[in-house]
Write a structure and sequence with these properties.
The chain is of the alpha+beta class. Helices cover 16% and strands 34% of the residues.
């Protein structure tokens, strides 16, 4: 149907739910349990141009990103910090007293930290230091047992932040040998927390999730990147991509086989016009490309419909223009103008020379009292006219 976008397919280990493939219809991609979608966009729409919103120069066929298998991390913990309102923790004894009191509080029922109450995490690496007159507590909530309980850590971080912001985080610290106590309270706005995930060497960390970098991509220590256009990788956990043979390329990024390397055609540009499929898209050589000249322009050369692999891209010209290339016009006109100018200069010089009058005066001996004046005038090119004036 001419009013439909192309039919789409979901990724391996994933599924696709579509309302249709007409204009304004949309499709949503998802992955099976135990897999993570590696794309940033999960919902796409069929546009007026009859292209899906995720189709581009690097994805002319509208393929979806891969679903990657997930794995439990080797370690995962909330690393957090909070500042207290007392100038303390200057000595080892003071530090030990504050650490003991804080750990007792954070494990208590009033604190109600989710991962602690659910026995999914333990308090570790707690320390106290003095920073400019303020006591700073650093601590970790490390997952134990179920190392996939990321949401539990996230909820715990939010709970602790709420306790700090609402001034509910307060606890007593024994501050003297006489067992005197001082109330310590967290300063509002002082909490910060980050979830730190550690993966085994064979996996890649993506958004706090350990994954196997799938075929069609290559892994580094901190990323799982899709193979570029014209390359592919056939196995998971690849560290590089293989380039297609000379003259062959792929429809887009993330190719998983050498069979995806084909003799394809990249839609060329049309000055003052647009094409469908769009300029730069990689298509089959036998694809018919339809060109439309911009407003105020009309077809100059070629056909508005042409085959990408065998045809020549048309050109557009302004309405009323003869279609002659501007560079060609300049190349023809400029020499003619120069020749005309040079010829004009030559004619002017010749005419001035012909109309020039030479006058010479011959003086007779003083005794004769006669002066002969010889006038030579070149007026018509038929000879020299001599005039003699005698002066007595």
């Amino acid at each position: 149907n001419e009013d439909m976008c192309a039919l789409l397919s979901g990724p391996e280990h994933g599924s696709l739910s579509c309302t249709g493939n007409g204009i304004r219809d949309n499709c949503t991609v998802s992955c099976q349990d135990g897999y993570k979608y590696l794309g940033a966009v999960t919902k796409v729409m069929c546009q007026d141009s009859l292209l899906w919103t995720h189709q581009s120069y690097n994805n002319s066929q509208g393929s979806f990103e891969a679903c990657a298998q997930t794995h439990s991390p080797s370690a995962q913990a909330l690393s957090a910090q909070v500042s207290l309102d007392q100038d303390y923790c200057r000595t080892a004894q003071e530090q030990s007293a504050v650490v003991t009191a804080f750990e007792t509080y954070i494990k208590s029922a009033p604190a109600a930290v989710p991962c602690i109450t659910a026995s999914k995490c333990t308090v570790q690496s707690t320390s106290c230091s003095n920073n400019g007159g303020s006591s700073e507590i650093n601590f970790q909530l490390a997952l134990s047992g179920d190392l996939t309980a990321y949401e539990s850590l996230l909820q715990s971080s939010n709970t602790i932040k709420d306790l700090v912001e609402s001034s509910q985080m307060s606890f007593e610290v024994t501050t003297s040998k006489k067992r005197a106590t001082t109330m310590f309270s967290a300063k509002a706005g002082s909490y910060s927390g980050t979830i730190v995930t550690t993966c085994d060497a064979a996996y890649t960390l993506i958004d706090n999730t350990c994954i196997t970098c799938p075929a069609g991509r290559y892994k580094t220590s901190s990323a799982c990147t899709a193979c570029g256009v014209g390359s592919y990788s056939t196995t998971a956990s690849s560290t590089s991509c293989t380039q297609c043979a000379t003259g062959l390329t792929t429809y887009g990024t993330g190719s998983t086989s050498s069979e995806h390397c084909r003799n394809l055609c990249k839609v060329p540009g049309v000055e003052s016009g647009t094409s469908s499929p769009p300029v730069g898209f990689i298509v089959n050589p036998d694809t018919t490309v339809t060109t439309a000249c911009n407003t105020g322009f009309t077809l100059n050369t070629g056909q508005l419909e042409w085959v990408c692999g065998t045809g020549t891209a048309p050109t557009c010209k302004e309405d009323g223009d003869s279609g002659t290339d501007a560079g060609t016009v300049v190349a023809i006109v400029v020499p003619i103008v120069i020749i005309i100018l040079l010829a004009g200069i030559a004619i002017i010089f010749f005419l001035k020379k012909r109309n020039r009058t030479r006058v010479s005066t011959l003086r007779c001996p003083e005794s004769s009292g006669t002066v002969l004046t010889n006038k030579n005038t070149e007026t018509n090119g038929n000879g020299v006219e001599n005039q003699y004036d005698t002066k007595l």
